[in-house]
Amino acid sequence: MKDLKILIVEDERILAEDLKETLLELGYNVAGNVGSGEKAVELASKTEIDLALMDIKLEGELDGVNTAEVLRNRFDIPVIYLTAFSDDTLLQKAKKTEPFGYVIKPYRASEIKSVIEMAFFKIEVERKRKESYKNLESEAQNHANKLEKMDATLKTLMEYRENEKNEAIRNVAKNLNDRVIPHFDTIRMRWPNKELNNLLDALTTTLQEIARPSENSLSDSINLTPMECRVVDLIRQGRTSKEIASLLGITVRGVTFHRGNIRKKLGIQNKKINLKASLSR
């Protein structure tokens, strides 16, 4: 990790030069040696820096803590503080910048080395953590993109199948109207009979109901029985209970029973609501 670049920020120039010599002797790469927070920020904007050794009490508008905060927030540069005294207030303020360590002046080369090595270790751990998080984030995004594509494909297939189904239903309806229902008119003309005409009317309505798209089918939405479906078709035609009973071959009481079940499934039981009107919505 000796190739990582270190910035020295120390306003006592003799100490700064001495520290630079020490770092070079220890084999570290010194990226810069400045005497103020302003110059440190300026250099950081132009040069790649991995770690800053910061005098905690710099002269000027930017003291050591303020400079460390700027370097951390703007350039993501970690800091080791250099301090000749222990001011509790200043140390509490310094903690908020999350420093990678402290070195007390006057310092020994061995102490400098151990603190820097620990800082470099933390930097490497943090780098790997960020890289791992970035990879996980990228992998999660890839999975999300795949799921989005699969969802879009599935929707397209469903729409295609729905269109095919509706097209088939339209073809059935056309064939009924063109080839089947005209024969009912022929039967009415050849064999005029009121009961037969009623049956043909009911059959016509039922066939047309079957040939409609089923997504809004009443029988599906409220779970009608086959007999209830037939009663519903005849109620929609405006048939009376007596006529329905005759057409379906059941008693009027049976029709009343089915009407009651249909009203219950529609949620209008014991309400003064017209059943035919409800079925026509």
UniProtKB/TrEMBL annotation:
This is DNA-binding response regulator. The modification 4-aspartylphosphate is found at residue 55. It comes from Desulfosarcina ovata subsp. ovata. Transmembrane segments: none annotated. Residues 5-120 form the Response regulatory domain. SMART domains: HTH_LUXR, REC. Keywords: Coiled coil, DNA-binding, Phosphoprotein. Residues 217-281 form the HTH luxR-type domain. Residues 130-167 form a coiled coil. InterPro entries: CheY-like_superfamily (IPR011006), Sig_transdc_resp-reg_C-effctor (IPR016032), Sig_transdc_resp-reg_receiver (IPR001789), Tscrpt_reg_LuxR_C (IPR000792), WalR-like (IPR039420), WH-like_DNA-bd_sf (IPR036388). GO terms for biological process: phosphorelay signal transduction system; regulation of DNA-templated transcription. One of its GO terms (molecular function) is DNA binding. The keyword Phosphoprotein applies.
